[in-house]
Amino acid sequence: MVNDVRVTVLAGGVGGAKLAHGMELAGADLTVVVNTADDVELHGLAISPDLDTVTYTLAGLADDVRGWGLAGETYATLDALRRLGEDTWFTLGDKDLATHVARTARLRAGATLTEVTAQITGSLGVRSRLLPMTDDLVATVVETADGPLGFQEYFVARQHRDEVLGLTFVGAEQASPAPGVLDAVSGADLLVVAPSNPFLSIEPILSVPGVRDTLASSSARRVAVSPIVGGRALKGPAASVLASLGHDVSALGVARLYVGLVDVMCIDEADRDLAPAIEALGLEVLVTDTVMGGAQGRERLARELLAASA
Ligand code: FO1
């Protein structure tokens, strides 16, 4: 029975959210461990973009065209902030702002990000468990020719145009995994590394002390889904970041990053030719259609991963 299968997904934003949604549709008992190193404070508000992307997607509220934010948004507050001379390069919708106001108020009142996330997901009707990777502050800093940039400054304000010369996850060494994270990694029947950016979304999660080692020694069946299809990223700067950090821009390049951490590499039909080279790394290969269109595509991929883990 699929609903007895405990699945943990390590996720960044959009790709992780889609796969998590597929797992829910397939009936899995799902926990999602989410990157929080993209989190940013703007207008005095604590914003957790990847947690919100996964939350809104699982709640059926996401803007499916952009992948992030809420469907049917309005921007009256952002327009008013602009008139007041505030920086408005980060697009915050009116309804989305309510999430950030509630999160900030609860954090200031002393709740942890794990507790706040449980409250928000519960209120929005999400039935799976969402865990931030940590309750501590960890921030991705992107080294560029123009100097270090905060993640959202690199990603949104500068549209990820800068070449990434290096990455630092500030605070990671002192951080602790959020409650439940290590158990979710070690105790799952199936652990899935989502088709999220390996360096910008997955590496921050693995950099929280204990997470990488727990994954490496987990008795779960472990599968990573390549975010690179046919030598290109499905979304965002995964291809350019792999290239600038000296890695092959291919599912093989991604597989090399996950050797020792997963048992199976899931690659797209378009990359079938790479299967022997990935197998030579000691990984099993699952070749399928990994491009998740609508709900059907998400559920189909999730069911294939579940079948491969049985
Ligand atoms: N991404 C953008 O490209 N532009 C935006 O203005 C933007 C606003 C935004 C607001 C709330 C939110 O939860 C996510 C938002 N994102 C935006 C997405 C986000 O910056 C990135 O997709 C992730 O951080 C990368 O995983």
Written account of the structure:
It is built from 13 helices and 14 strands. The chain is of the alpha/beta class and 310 residues long. Strand 1 (6-11), helix 1 and strand 2 (29-34) form a beta-alpha-beta unit. The longest helix is centred in the N-terminal third of the chain and has 15 residues, at 94-108. It starts with 5 loop residues before the first strand and ends with a helix. The mean pLDDT is 96. Residues 12-13, 38, 49-50, 52-53, 68-69, 90-92, 96, 152, 155-156, 201 line the site of ligand FO1. Keywords: Magnesium, Transferase. Its EC number is 2.7.8.28.
Structure at a glance:
Its EC number is 2.7.8.28. 39% of the residues lie in helices and 19% in strands.
Key features of this structure:
alpha/beta; single chain; 310 residues; 19% strand; globular
Q: What's the layout of helices and strands?
A:
Blueprint: E1 6-11, H1 14-25, E2 29-34, E3 40-42, E4 45-47, H2 49-58, H3 76-83, H4 94-108, H5 113-123, E5 129-132, E6 139-144, E7 147-150, H6 151-157, E8 166-170, H7 181-186, E9 190-193, H8 198-206, H9 211-217, E10 221-225, E11 228-229, E12 232-233, H10 238-244, H11 251-258, E13 264-268, H12 275-279, E14 284-288, H13 295-309
Parallel strand pairs: 1-2, 1-9, 2-5, 9-10, 10-13, 13-14
Antiparallel strand pairs: 3-4, 6-7, 6-8, 11-12
Helix pairs in contact: 1-2, 1-13, 4-5
Bound molecules: ligand FO1.
